[in-house]
Amino acid sequence: MNINRTTKKIAIAAIIAAIYAALTVAVAPLSYGVMQLRISEAMTILPAFTPMAIPGLFIGAAISNVLSPVGIIDVILGSGASLIAAGLSYLLRDKKWLVPLPPVIVNALVIGPMLYYYYGVDFSLIACILWVGLGQLAVCYGAGIPLMKILEKYRNYFED
Amino acid sequence: MIRDITLGQYYDVNSVIHRADPRVKIISTLLFITELFIVDDFKGLGICALALAAVVTLSKVPLGFILRGMKPILFILTFTFVLNIFMTDGEVLLKLWFLKITKEGRYLAGFMASRLILLIVGSSLLTFTTKPINLTDGIEKLLAPLKVFKVPTHEIAMMMSIALRFIPTLIEETDKIMKAQQARGADFESGNIIQRGKALIPILVPLFISAFQIAQDLAMAMEARCYRGGKGRTRMHEMTLSYMDFLGLILSLMFLALIIFERIYL
Questions:
Q1: Nearest-CA distance from B1 to chain A in Å?
Q2: Which residue of A has its CA nearest to B133?
Q3: Do A71 and B72 touch (CB under 8 A)?
Q4: pTM flag (> 0.90)
């Protein structure tokens, strides 16, 4: 049976979103707040395998952020950051070592200031940015790169 | 690591807030959050707190349930409070060793902590009173104007509702994989952060493979039920705005005006 490509694309994106949300919520409260450590961010390497990971990660982040203490602001800004980062990762998909870089930089620059202003901490804005960046670096490169290397063997599953 | 998670923490009770249109609730929540950032003193926060208390009472969600939802942020609340009280410059009230508590610090810490509590209770009320599926319907309708800019709002909403439906399934799948790997000698409990990170790979890879098979089956099921996308698609319960919804919206806007007035003149 020939499955319509759009239906399959929607299904793949939705499932990626579901995995991201499930993994984020499973490690709450570590996933939220100034000291974020979201293991689901390891999935930010997926745009190197399929462009459907872009809406997938965006929606996964949106669902996870609905539960965030920051609430609806995180849904807009946090998910927006994930969308931009996923798009950039997709564009860098041929340069393996640069794929996890956009989520580190974009999230640090968007979520850092968001947390700084939301929590109103009279702390350095730079510190907030660096802190988020560090958390992202640990997960995106620490778990993302090995994950990417292993998933290479299964690349055919992602092909349309 | 895997727990029984009720996503969204919906509290099932029949109240006027629960029955309200999700679009009105989303807009009102966004307005409330904006208002909390407009106010700059305890007077303003007090007015917001009173309004929130009224809405909480109307929602029939028990206070105990709401307070339990605050537990995850207790740490960040204390951290923010302590940081503000000790790191603000100004007129010193108390000196403890090398740490100083200032008048300004005390005010700021109190203000920020109170605002944070109101922000979280306000935002949580949205998920307490709105089922996730209604939330996504509301978001889809609110994003509809973006269709003019060729944004695929229907597809996004569809992905969101499918994702919500599959989260429990995937959690179960992850649990199965973890147990299967543990039966084969995998260890997820011990080790430092790097070892635990590496230990995730035997879970994530089978999870992705399994998930893609699910996606394949899902696409086939959708096609078999004649899913053709958003064109001409209707729903079982069409969202309509009632008089109460309009009233709620007007009250929200009036409250916004009140807060702006308070900020400027009082």
A1: 6
A2: A63
A3: no
A4: no
